[in-house]
Structures are given as C-alpha cells and as structure tokens.
Design brief:
globular, alpha+beta
C-alpha cells in the first residue's frame, strides 16, 4: 500500500525523504556534508570500537558518524557508530541545514507529527536486499556479527541498536499493534539471546500475552536500518499506533517493507534481520549492562529467544551505538528529540497551553515543560497529566514546569526560573510510583519517586511578591544586528 502525504515539508525535506531508503543512503548523505568519518586503520573490537564510539559522541551538535572498515578478527565486516550521534546528523535527516538548533529541531518534529496512516511500498522478499543472503542451519551469531561489549564490565556481548518487530499474539493481523522497538539484546550462545523490555512497553505486553495464552511469539531483529525508523523505534507512541506509520509520515515518503521468513513486516533495505522465537516460560540470567544513566544495571532473569534464521545484505554493516556514560552519548541524541515531540503531542490535545517540552536528558528522567499558565496551580495539573502519558508512566521522574516566557531548551533561563519563581510549597513528591528499573537511585527496582517543581510565576489567588516586576531586556532585530556588528569588529 502506498499513499502521498499532504504536508508542508520544504522541497529539500521532500527530496531527502524520497532519497533515503535505508542506512547506506543516509551514510552517503552524511559523507556529502562532511558528517561521515571512514576509519581504515585496523581496530580491535575491544576496547577500540567502544572508545571510538564514545569519542564520536562527545560533540552533541556536530559529531560525525564513524564507519569502521578494518576490524581485527572480522575480515569483510563493517561497523558504523554515531549515525544519530549529533543534532547536525538529525537535521540533515529531516532536510534541515547544518547548524539547526535543538529548539528548531523540536518544532520541526512537532510540525511533522503526521497521522497514523502508514506510507508503505511493498517489496517482495525475492527483491528485498535484506534477503540477499540467508542462513537457516547452524546459525552462529558470533561469526555473523562483529560482537563486542559496549562497556568494559558488561555481562556479555550486546546488540543495542536493533529494531525489534513483534505482533500481538492475540491479534496478529492488526498492523497497528505490530510493534517496532529498540531493546537491548544479550547474546548467550550461537543461536540464543535474551531481550530486555519493561512491562509497560509494547514488547513487554506481547511477551505477557504469549506466556499467558501459551502462544507463539515470533520476532524479527533488524540491524542497520532506515535512520528515521531507528528514531521512531525509540519513540513512545500508543500501543495500537504503528512506528512504521509515524516514521514514514515524518519523512513524507513511503518506507519499503517486505516480509521476514517468520511472517513479520520488516524494512526491505535493512542490513540484517535475525528471526527468532521466544521460548515461553524460560528465563536466563542477563547483565550487568552499562545503562543510559551511566551505571551498570544488575543481573536479572529475562526471556529467552531461539534464533531460527538470519538474512543479510551483501557485506552487511553492523550498526551500534555507545550507551552508559553520565555525559552525553548517541543514545541521548537518538532518543531526546523524539521523546520531546511525543510528550508534547500527547499533552497538546488536553492542554493547548503547552508551549514546548525539553525531555532530552536521561531518557526524559528529567524534563522541562513550558506552559501558558491559566490560573494558580495549573502547571501542576499539566505535570500530573505528563506523568500518565505512555512515556511518563515509566520514565518522567523529575518535572520542572516553567512559564511560556522561559525557553525550556535554555538551561540558563530554566535555572533563573527555578531560582526566582519557586517556593517551598511548589515542590510535589509522589513516592512509590512505577519507574524505569534502570534508575540507580531506586531502592526497589521498578519503583521510585516522582518530583514536580512548579517554577512558574504566581497568579491570583496566590500572594504576589512586591519584587515581581520583570526587567524588560532589549530584544529583537536591533539587538541581533548589534551582536553581529560586534562579532565582525572582533574579527578585524
């Protein structure tokens, strides 16, 4: 099925959407714009790939993707890291110029938030590049993939940037309930792996249904994917909404889908797809793993999956990312903007006063929401609604509410608001709430507190401070021009 999107996308954005069919097309675009570094010298899987991945992600605004062509012990294997490692890379993906600000990217994503009508071109499996090669007997992931530990003390080899496709076992024909998500995968043997999904995620619900009904749960693990799909596989859309639909609508062009050998819809141009089936009611010890808060998760018992087949392109590229640092990493860039846009769009119908959402940090565990205050206490009501959103249910931990005159993406303004507009009774603590089990501050895994800080200005019937009149700083085109002149004078 295919459809045309009615959009206001720029001609540049439309051209990019039509051009990019998969990872390789995007790498070519990055290369043309000086955003791809090709590493030809021999590297060790450990610690070299880990160190290069981290180094590439240190420049959150302009860091490049890095393509590694010479990996010791893995002849003819390639690894790419940093594909979503900077906001410049994201800007190029959506047809925006280099130098586009984070705030501008946020509103670009918000404006592109299309309907849940998928734009799809179907490709027969015989013509799909991902099915160019296929292994069904004696599958050995250690030979097919250049696996390595993402962090030094990880419990094993991890696949951490795949898009995992699964269907609701009780309603397998519903395209909308077909989930595409990013979940960490630990390889335990040549054809055995575990997968970590929190219960509130769509995949977690599929696992629960399969085991309750003793139904088969087949999955397809796609590696090296369309860059928009990687973004939306990390986006908390509703259970019956398709990630394929939102990714295609964002690009304004159809995605090319084909069928996996086990009956799932997969990207025809992915580099590799691992087909597997869950072994119901079996668990295996998984972890530790260097998680997004910058700490190692503990060892836990997770579901077991048996690989049934692997398909891959000629000379497949293994895409990975670095995660596990308390500083900025590609994980934060990949997840941040789409979480901001998702929370914004889920709140906007109920609260049109929402201005912007900054949930860039730690998977949104700390977020700043700007609102046009309607009356005293209004911002706290918006915060409570955010905590009940699909992403907020498990991840939004610390919420800072600010007025519409505060730019939530400008941390200086946010701290000003905290310093000048917060009173002791503006802080709300909700104990014993469900929370992501990766939170290192939790006393009990999966439970924690929620913190709401109302840093908005006071409105009647609140008591208003006598020192509440704001200084009107010079703004506008005149000041912008003066700043330009000063910078020119400095260059002389």
């Amino acid at each position: 099925m295919s459809a045309e999107r009615k959009s206001t996308l720029s001609p540049e954005a439309i051209a990019i959407g039509k051009r990019i069919k998969g990872l390789r097309d995007f790498l070519a675009l990055l290369d043309e714009n000086g955003q791809l570094a090709v590493w030809e010298e021999e590297v060790l899987p450990e610690p070299d790939i880990r160190n290069i991945s981290f180094a590439a992600g240190r420049d959150a605004m302009n860091g490049p993707a890095v393509l590694l062509n010479n990996i010791k012990g893995y002849p003819d294997k390639q690894v790419v890291v940093g594909v979503h490692g900077s906001f410049t890379n994201l800007a190029l993906l959506v047809g925006q110029p280099k130098g586009t600000s984070v705030k501008e990217l946020f509103y670009e994503m918000v404006n592109r938030w299309g309907s849940d009508e998928p734009l799809i071109d179907r490709v027969s499996p015989a013509r799909a590049p991902v099915h160019g090669n296929r292994v069904e007997d004696a599958v050995n992931l250690y030979e097919l993939l250049p696996l390595y530990r993402i962090n030094e003390y990880d419990g094993g080899f991890y696949i951490d940037k795949s898009n995992v496709v699964s269907r609701d076992p009780s309603d397998p024909d519903d395209f909308g309930k077909q989930n595409v998500g990013i979940y960490r995968i630990q390889v335990h043997g040549p054809d055995i792996f575990s997968l970590d999904s929190v219960p509130s995620h769509d995949m977690g619900q599929h696992i629960r249904i399969a085991e309750q009904e003793n139904a088969a749960l087949n999955i397809a693990v796609m590696i090296g994917n369309h860059p928009a799909m990687a973004m939306f596989a990390a986006t908390p859309v509703n259970y019956d909404e398709s990630e394929y639909a939102y990714a295609s609508q964002m690009m304004g062009a159809p995605l090319q889908l084909t069928k996996s050998g086990n009956g799932l819809d997969i990207l025809a141009n992915s580099e590799m797809v691992i087909e597997a089936r869950m072994i119901n009611n079996e668990r295996i010890l998984e972890g530790p793993f260097g998680e997004f808060p910058g700490t190692y998760s503990g060892v836990r018992r997770l579901n077991v999956f048996k690989v049934t087949a692997v398909s891959f392109r000629d000379a497949p590229i293994f895409e990975s990312l670095y995660i596990g640092s308390k500083s900025w990493t590609e994980h934060d860039t990949l997840v941040g903007i789409n979480v901001c846009a998702t929370v914004y769009n889920q709140l906007k119908p109920s609260f049109p006063e929402i201005v912007a959402v900054n949930a860039l940090y730690q998977d949104g565990m700390t977020a700043v929401i700007a609102v046009k205050n309607r009356f005293a206490g209004f911002a706290k009501s918006v915060a409570l609604r955010a905590l009940g959103s699909p992403h907020g249910l498990m991840f939004l931990k610390n919420l800072i509410m600010v007025d519409s005159d505060i730019d939530p993406f400008d941390i200086n303004q946010v701290i000003w608001s905290l310093s000048n507009r917060t009173r002791a009774d503006d802080i709300v603590i909700l104990p014993n709430m469900p929370l992501c089990d990766a939170d290192p501050s939790a006393e009990i895994g999966g439970k924690g507190h929620r913190l709401i800080i109302d840093a908005t200005a006071y409105m009647p019937p609140d008591k208003i401070s006598v020192n509440n009149n704001l200084v009107e700083s010079p703004t506008g085109a005149v000041v912008d021009e003066l700043e330009r002149i000063i910078n020119e004078l400095r260059k002389k």
